[in-house]
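Hello Y.,

Per our agreement to keep a running log of every chain we model this quarter, I'm adding this entry. I've kept the format consistent with earlier entries: sequence first, then predicted structure.
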Amino acid sequence: MSQRLQVLVPAELDARLRKAAERSRMSKGQWVRRAIEESLVRNAKGRAPSDPLARLSELKAPTADIEQMLAEIEAGRS
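Predicted structure for the entry above:
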């Protein structure tokens, strides 16, 4: 069962919210629910949302020892 939550926001924030929801092709309510859920997930991980190392690790990019990476870069230049 859903619960109703009423939040008062300034007109400028409401306009920004409306535009963000339109860009995402969803209602403001959907957009806000998604943003809240994402924030709660980030906070549950015990880190600040702006932690650059945590955000980088979320990319799941390949990693290796620095010497191996440098050797592969040099090999690619040949």
